[in-house]
Every structure is written in C-alpha cells, then in structure tokens.
Amino acid sequence: MKHRINLFRHAPWLFIVFMSLALPASAAKPLTPEDVLDIEYVSSARMSPDGRYIAYTVRVPRQPGDEPGGAWYELYVADVKSGKTRPFVTGEVNIYSIEWRPDASAIAFRARRGDQEHTQIWMIPVDGGEARPVTDHESGISEFHWHPNGRQIAFTAIEPETDRMQKLDDKGYDFIYFEDWRHEHLYMIDVDTDRLPVQSAEQLTRDMTVWDFTFNPDGGQIAFSASDRNLIDAYYMFRRIHILNLADKEHRPLTDNPGKLGNYEFSPDGTHLAYSAAKFRKDHAVSQAYVIPVSGGQAKNLTPEHFIGHVEWVNWKDSDTVLYMSGEKTANSLSLVDKDGGERDIIHSSKENGGVVFSPPSYTDDFKQFALVGHTPQHPRELYYWQPDSDLQRLTNLNPWLQERDLGEQRVVQYKARDGETIEGLLMTPPSHEKSGLPLMVFVHGGPESHYSNGWVTYYSTPGQVLAGRGYAVFYPNYRSSTGYGLDYALTGYQDAAGTEFDDIADGIKHFVDTGLVDEDRVGLAGGSYGGFAAAWFSSYYSDLVKATGMFVGISDLISKRSTTDIPYEELYVHSGEKLENMWQFSLERSPVYHAHKNDNKTAVLIFGGKQDSRVHPSQSIEFYRRLKMNHHKAVRLVQYPGEGHGNRKQPGRIDVLYRTVDWYDWYLKDGKPVDGPMPPLDLSEKYGLDLSK
Known about the structure:
The protein has about 700 residues and is α+β, with helices and mostly antiparallel strands. It is built from 13 helices and 37 strands.
C-alpha cells in the first residue's frame, strides 16, 4: 500500500501559514472523484485518564490496485501539551476499540494480526515498545473494557464452534439453520504482563447474548445489555440492561425499555445508571436521556418536554449531573442536567466554535479536558481538544491538500411543504458565480432514522462537493421522519411509508425550481437504503419531477421486503405498525414496483447494491429492474457488487459507485442526453486508477 507523504497532517497551523504564503487563490481547483477516494479521517479518539495524551485512530483508504478490502485503521497518540503526535501502529493494520489502561501506562485495542485466526485484544506501552497480544481466545472478541483496577479485562465473544461442528463444516455439511445461533457471552481475564497472551477466560453469562457492557467505578458490578437471541433484529428492538454482581456472579434485569436502546453509564458514585433510549416502541430512534437507580426502581426521563432534537448519547459530569449529546436540526450540542430533572444547561454547541459537528467526547474524570472528533463543511473528521469555556483546538490536518480545492458553498436552507410545515436541509452551490438554471442533485439519507448535520457530507455514494465543482446545485434534505427535529417530526412516516416524507422532498425540488436556482429539466435524485426507496419512488410515482435517479441498496416492494429483511421486527414495530395481512393493499400501493409503469422513459434509473445484502435483499433491485424492463424502459441499468452487503466496504465497489454516480448524472443532467437514447458507457474501469499491465 502506498501512503502519500504528508508533512502537515499533524500540524494544521503550519500548513495554513504555508498555503497563505504560497498558493494564489486562482490555483484552487474543484474536488475530484480521485480526491474523495484519497480522503483520510479520524475515526475515534480517547483521552488518557491523566489528561496528558489523546489516542486516536485514522482511517486510511486502500488504493485502487491494492488487494480488495476495507480501509486500514492506524493508531496515533497526541501529546496534549506539546501538540506533537507519534505514530504507534501504522501501515496495513486495523486497530479498533482503543482504550487506555486505568493508570495511563498502555493502550489496549482489538486487532487481528499476523497468523491470528480471530480478532484479539492487544496492548502497547505509551512510553514505547512493541504491541503484544493480551488474549488468545478461541473465537473473535467483539468488545472489551479494562476493570478499574487495571489488572483485569472483561470482553464479549461468540461461543466457539464445537469439534463436531468444525468436522461437519470440513466435510461440506455447513448448512445454514435460521433457528440456530450461538450466543455472545461475557468473559473476564487476569492480565499478567509477564504471562501474555491469556488463553483461558472465566465465562460470566449464559443462555443470552451480551451486546455491550460497562464497569461501575469500583469494579464490583457490570451493567450489560442483552437479548435472548443473537440476531441483529434483537439488537435493535429487544436489548435490555442487566446488572451483574462480580462477587457472586449473579445478575438481574434493570430496565424494561419499550424499544431501542442506546448507550449507558454508571454515575461516579455507582448509585445510578444513565442511559439513552427510545421513548416508546414506535419511536424509530434513540431519542431520550434517562436515569435509574442501580438498586432498581422507576426510570426518570431527563429530556426536555417537546424537545426539538434527539438525545443520542449520555454520560456523567459528576454523581449529581448527567451529560448528554443531542442532534438538534443540523447542529448538535452537549448539555448538563441534574439527575433529578430540571432545566438543561447547554455547555457546547456546533453552532459556535467554528461550526464543528462532533461525535461523543472522551474526557477526564475532573471534566476539564475533552477529546473530540469533529468535522465541518470544509473538512472531514479531525481530532480536537477542548476545555469547557474555551475554544476548540484542532490537533490534526489529515488532508492538507483540501486547502487547494475550491469547494462549493454549503448552507442550511428552509422551505415550506405543501401543508405549510417548514422543512430544512443543506444546499451546496457551485464555486462559480453562476447561481441560476443549474442542474440539481438531491441526496436522500437512509433510515429514515437519521439526519444531515451541517458538516462534511461528501462520501463515495454522496459526492456532493464533486458535483458542486462540476456546476451542480446539491441538496441534502431532512425530510419528515428524520431525527433531530423532535418526536412528532420523526413519527410522520410511521404507518405512512412514501407518504408525507417523500412529498417533502418533492416540494423541495419544486421550491428550487420556483426560485430559479435550478433547471426543472435537469433534476436528479439518489440515495441508499431508505434513501434508495426514495430514489425508486421518484423513478416511478414522482418520475415527472426527475430526469435521472440512483437507487443504491434500495427498497422497491414493501411486501417482499418485509419477508426478506434481517430486521422484520424493527420494521414492524417502528415503521409499519401492523402485520402485513392487515395492510396488503396499502403496502402494494406504496411500493415503487406498483408505479413502475408511470416512468414511461421519463427518468433514467441506475440500480446498484451488494450481492450479499441481508438488510435490503438484492431481490428488491432485481424486482424493480425487471418491472422497468418489462415496461420497455430504455434507460435502466442494474449493477451488483459480489461480497458486499448493505453498502460497499471494499475499495473496488466504492470506486465504481463513485465514478458510476458522477457519470450517470453528468450524462443525463449536465450533458442533457435524452432518456430514450444510448446510456452512458457500462465499463468505467479506465477511470479506476488501475495498472492492468502488472
């Protein structure tokens, strides 16, 4: 793998000074697809317990000619006082779940290195030395945490295969039984530095799947979330928190949350647990902050009444004060509230401090030093250091060459839907001065339990800045059903799939046409998952409004989708609200396949997705493709990516999606080619950056 030499990646101030002296404004050029594929970003950050260091991981994309696979994740450590950064584990590595030893002497992480068959826990001293494996468990480790004493580690891992299962597999009898699953259990080991790796662990749970956990401050108890089945659907809808006493290994249920569960943390005195969760079962996302006595009792909701936002993460400032992070429209914030309730105190918001949208922070016990990962419309995720009542300090600049790119202007916009509701979203306009009669590209987010924040939103499947640099207006709508705007807004799509939520997007397109910003004959729309559902809907029901669409891992048939997805209960409880037999006709009429004949060669349709997608089965793409083809549609293309699931992880599929997306819209929108004429070239491999002579 080739790494670009980057002298400024950990000294952002130095690069800014250099560029201000050396680069004329006229030298800037638009962002290219190649640029998007080269972007690195900080993926996680952890503050050391003593506040001296921040350990962080950097996502480094593979190059086109590398062996197919996901990006690499490297480990670095930043010195808070000096601002200097040291590489710890770099190259062709994947470092996950970094966590400091309680005495700040070492960093532990998950990785599979060398000839290891499974992902194990590793540890590297902060003062220098090589990383060493801590565990040699017989199955892969999913999550781990240090015991507060620093001498033990607890972790979760799936039940290993029995000898009989392995022998049957070796002889080809590796059948798949839908009713058969192995549980994920909680284990504990003693960490003796002189005797690593540890090969045997004490199993703490049985007959349930443990998804995640946390220690209480004195290490005598563990809170863990569990379900009775090891299925992704159980993770979404049936996780409940339990309390385990390590002295007698007994555990008991603590919460009876009715729907989705987020994170949870003990108070510093160990008497209470704060957790984030849905308010009720039909709430499609985590939205509230709760606190409950560890001894048991009634949970108290600390979320402001009629909150225009969604609580996404909780923790503690001290034993009496809960900290929570919330998405609020296109911004996010950190707030403090008394554990007994009351008014919240917003201590940090992305509306200030340079508009940096941030992830859940890591901070010292005294609440004086924070490590955050943040991004803005001008740059992807970087490492920041923050002290309350002070400005954010940016510690990294992983992509200094972005200073040489002429990015489009990104701003928050509002418009009125047909029923008078105010809808919000992000709008990019070209760097050029031309601001009327533009082609418009709409990127619809998935979920729909998600929303766009006003940060960096250009990725391989949503290349907004690339298209803005080519003369497009680009719109990212937070249509009704999105999170971040309160429960009433989010519940709009409950039992109303493809109703008001997609009408909001149609009204946004009409708004930009009416203002003269865009040319109504050059409108495109794309999205993935639920956004792919929107793309299919605008390829059929709303085909009069768009000339070209891109349906990525999208839904086309609500009836068959419910029978082929791996999250049927999640779909039932937070989306449909009724069993299929009670809503056959409704499901049919809200399916794009039902309206496919309305396209009538008005809209060019690109359909693509993973061949091994278990969330939205590939048959959804095939159904829609066949319906359009059987209606004699001339501009429909289906591309499937072997080995990929619900979104592409490996670089070949990401590269193709990016170039195919840009080419598709340039062909029909920028260049104005007719829908009933020839389609864009099928083979785009000359653009991939491959050297096929080797």
